Amino acid sequence: MKRPSTWGKDFPIANGERQSPIDIVTSAAEYDSDVQGSNALSTNYTPESEVKLVNNGHSIMCQITKKGVLTGGPLGKDEYRLEQFHLHWGAEDGRGSEHTVDGKMYASELHLVHWNASKYSSFADAVQKPDGLAVLGIFITPGVACNQFKVISDNCGKLKTSGAEMTVDTTLDPTLLLPSNTSDYWTYLGSLTTPPLFESVTWIVFKEPVEYSKEQLLALRNLVDSDGNHMQDNYRPPAALKQRKVKKTFT
Ligand SMILES: NS(=O)(=O)c1cc(F)ccc1F
Ligand SMILES: [Zn+2]
């Protein structure tokens, strides 16, 4: 987003100890063997029977109504329920992701947002708790079209104002938005990347990017908010790692 440098005034936590995104320095990430095997990360999503798209002023978001869950990996015994997914992207292919890998920025980053349904009663209750949220970060790179993303890229242009919503009568399986390899990821404790920047997110960032076509990326770049400003470049630059360690599940 355009004004991350001003966020510190209204949200002092912007300079906190566990802010996101970060630059993932691959050589410094520590291999963590106990997120393998029996407690490997696992998604159990139910396909949405209709797609609820929302222009929330700074991104395009799909509100989830089914009760899909994410478990395992760094999440211990808790079940995290899928709440929504949204994206961050740039005006051109060379920028747009929030996390970077050894300084490399991808064209876009998809976030699947989950809340800890084993411990809390709702997303709103969980959003401020240190173990409240888990977000899957998927890097997007230009290439072949992602068929499951077509329902969003074909319709997001109709959401011309902030707050605009629409329901598309088609099924969507969030599992098909994930990369084929969901075993290899980095994970660390961080925050929301937009205000209020709550430090409540266990981040899981997949190593393997997913491809979207040029047209699908252009559909995102053509999105405007109610002031007619493009939403593109709605990514926060990397925050300081401070005393954190990034874990990885692969050698
Ligand atoms: N970009 S994010 O996944 O950290 C995020 C998720 C939310 F639900 C709310 C605000 C956010 F910034
Ligand atoms: Zn996000």
UniProtKB/TrEMBL annotation:
Q: Where in the cell is it found?
A: Secreted, Extracellular space, Extracellular matrix
Location, primary (coarse class): secreted
Print the keywords alphabetically: Calcium, Disulfide bond, Extracellular matrix, Lyase, Metal-binding, Repeat, Secreted, Zinc
Q: Which InterPro entries match?
A: CA_dom, CA_dom_sf, Carbonic_anhydrase_a-class, Carbonic_anhydrase_a-class_CS
Matches recorded under PROSITE patterns = ALPHA_CA_1, ALPHA_CA_2
One of its Pfam families is Carb_anhydrase
Known EC number: 4.2.1.1
- The UniProt record lists the Alpha-carbonic anhydrase domain at 1-250
Instruction: Give the EC class as a word.
Output: lyase
Cofactor list: Zn(2+)
Residue spans making up a coiled coil are: none
Q: What does this protein do?
A: Reversible hydration of carbon dioxide.
According to its UniProt record, which protein family does this protein belong to?
Belongs to the alpha-carbonic anhydrase family.
Q: What is this protein called?
A: Carbonic anhydrase
